[in-house]
């Protein structure tokens, strides 16, 4: 009976030893779970204690900028930017601008990716104007776009609160206007839905149009002068997609013109700006009805000035492309060390548009 008791104890000790070994392997081998736990702990540390090396693989649209700008311009410290491809093996993240991949995934890094390195997919074109390059699903870890549901969301512009606690409120008085409706367009294509809207609206109201195919190409300074001289500005997007609301809206707001918008739904626009800051083409059954509304506002200053009430609380902030986008990506890496992968990039970006760029029906 003593011998049986000793044998039972040996089995017990062996099982206990096996349990300790298994626990040790789970905690100290580079398993997915342990790496995730270690990385989650890193997110609560001071980012300044953990500098991030971010490699800009392709300069966005070949636009270079000061690699020291993150701290000085955007208050993102401990961010080391480089365009030296020899550092690809030690970079914490590699930022890749989709448009510059140029249809071919072979332009991406071809060396083995370090285990903890993140690849950032950056794109600020609409799905209609973005080439669907094969082989991108499961390749990237982080999305950087204008979309609000991106990992790193950088819209073309935004409204930021104005602190008026220490100054008397004064209603905004628009600049003196000598034009009713203006439009500056560089990509004029007759088949575009926005061009169809323009052609219908001009039947009822004079529209001053500028651009390569019209009066002349305008400089940045001329652009500001033109928009600020108009009561209304056609902030027409080139395609209709979720959250694709570009500088066309925010420039008009900033320069004192009321935007007439064509793009995603009014509800989508109201996620970015107050509903009484713009006019949406969908608010009217026809372009004739829209023109009638513009004439009403033109002759009723009180109604017109209601479109500027948002200025009591906000001011326009324009995003600085591409340096601000890159610096925000670096900050994201500082604070999010856990593993993730974009498994459904095609479905998420290309297959969630609000509608097609088809000619509308007019009344």
From TrEMBL:
GO terms for cellular component: Golgi cisterna membrane. It is a single-pass type II membrane protein. The chain crosses the membrane at residues 12-31. It catalyses: an alpha-L-Fuc-(1->2)-beta-D-Gal-(1->4)-beta-D-GlcNAc derivative + GDP-beta-L-fucose = an alpha-L-Fuc-(1->2)-beta-D-Gal-(1->4)-[alpha-L-Fuc-(1->3)]-beta-D-GlcNAc derivative + GDP + H(+); a neolactoside nLc4Cer + GDP-beta-L-fucose = a neolactoside III(3)-alpha-Fuc-nLc4Cer + GDP + H(+); an alpha-Neu5Ac-(2->3)-beta-D-Gal-(1->4)-beta-D-GlcNAc-(1->3)-beta-D-Gal-(1->4)-beta-D-GlcNAc derivative + GDP-beta-L-fucose = an alpha-Neu5Ac-(2->3)-beta-D-Gal-(1->4)-beta-D-GlcNAc-(1->3)-beta-D-Gal-(1->4)-[alpha-L-Fuc-(1->3)]-beta-D-GlcNAc derivative + GDP + H(+); a beta-D-galactosyl-(1->4)-N-acetyl-beta-D-glucosaminyl derivative + GDP-beta-L-fucose = a beta-D-galactosyl-(1->4)-[alpha-L-fucosyl-(1->3)]-N-acetyl-beta-D-glucosaminyl derivative + GDP + H(+). Keywords: Disulfide bond, Glycoprotein, Glycosyltransferase, Golgi apparatus, Lipid metabolism, Membrane, Signal-anchor, Transferase, Transmembrane, Transmembrane helix. It comes from the Eukaryota. Belongs to the glycosyltransferase 10 family. This is Fucosyltransferase. The lineage of its organism: Eukaryota, Metazoa, Chordata, Craniata, Vertebrata.
